[in-house]
Design a protein that fits this description.
It contains six helices and ten strands. The chain has a single domain (about 5-210), classed as Rossmann fold. It has a six-stranded mixed sheet, sandwiched between helices. A four-stranded antiparallel sheet has the order 2-1-4-5, covered by helices on one side. The chain is of the alpha/beta class. About 25% of the residues lie in helices and about 30% in strands.
C-alpha cells in the first residue's frame, strides 16, 4: 500500500520563555493526512501558526512532539540537504526559503520539480495581464504532476476568496481554541469551512462575498 503524500501525526509545537520558571507562549497541535495529489487552501489569523506549520512540514522547525512524514519519509530524519526533494516552502514572492541565494536559478527550478509537497505562504497575486490565471494554472500543473500543493492566503478582498474557491479542493483553517492552543479545522468546500463560527468571524464582511 502506498504511503500518504503527507501525514502529520500528533504534531505539537510549543514555544516557551523564561529560565527558572518556563512559560508556554505558543502551542500548535495538528493532525492531517492527505493521500492524493490536490490543492489545499489554508487560512487563519496572524499568529495562529500557519507559517510554523509549514516550517514543521519542511523540517526547518523541530516539533515538540509527533512527526511529519512526506511520501512515507519522516522529514526530520532525512538529511538536511535532501529535504528539499520532499517539501518546499515558498515566500510571498515565490522564492524558496531553503535555497541559498547563490544557487543558479536553473538548479532551483530543477529541485523544485522534484519536491512532493509545495507550500505557498501568502503568495502575491498581480491582477494585471492574466497573472492570476497563470499562477492558478501553475498550481494545477503541480497537482496534475502528482504533487501536493498548499495555498495559504490571508484574504482581505473578495478576489482572494475567488482564488481559493477556483483552485482548491480541500480547506484548512488554523485558529486558537478556548485554551489558546492552535488547532486545525478541515473542510471540503470553502462554504462548509465558512459555516464554522471562528471562520465566519475571521472573514468578517468578506463572508458575504463567498462564491456560490
Amino acid at each position: 500500500m502506498s504511503h500518504p503524500l503527507l501525514s502529520v501525526e500528533g504534531l505539537v509545537k510549543r514555544y516557551r520563555r523564561g529560565w527558572l520558571r518556563r512559560t508556554t507562549t505558543f502551542t500548535l497541535e495538528a493532525d492531517l493526512r492527505i493521500h492524493e495529489p490536490r490543492i489545499v487552501g489554508m487560512m487563519g489569523p496572524n499568529g495562529a501558526g500557519k507559517t510554523t506549520l509549514f516550517e514543521l512540514i519542511t523540517g526547518s522547525n523541530l516539533p515538540s512532539a509527533g512527526r511529519v512524514c512526506v511520501a512515507g519519509q519522516d522529514i526530520h530524519r532525512v538529511r538536511h540537504r535532501e529535504r528539499d526533494r520532499l517539501a518546499l516552502h515558498y515566500h510571498q514572492s515565490y522564492q524558496v526559503r531553503s535555497f541559498p541565494r547563490t544557487w543558479p536559478a536553473r538548479l532551483e527550478r530543477a529541485r523544485s520539480a522534484q519536491a512532493v509537497v509545495h507550500l505557498f505562504d501568502e503568495p502575491q497575486f498581480n491582477t494585471q495581464d492574466g497573472y492570476i490565471g497563470f499562477m492558478l494554472d501553475f498550481f494545477r500543473r503541480l497537482r496534475d504532476d502528482g504533487k501536493l500543493v498548499f495555498l495559504c492566503l490571508h484574504p482581505n478582498e473578495p478576489a482572494h476568496l475567488d482564488i481559493l474557491a477556483q483552485v482548491c479542493e480541500q480547506f484548512v483553517f488554523v485558529c486558537k481554541d478556548e485554551r489558546n492552543v492552535s488547532r486545525l479545522m478541515k473542510a471540503t468546500t470553502l462554504r462548509e469551512l465558512a459555516a464554522e463560527p471562528a471562520v465566519a468571524h475571521y472573514l468578517g464582511r468578506l463572508a458575504a462575498s463567498l462564491p456560490p
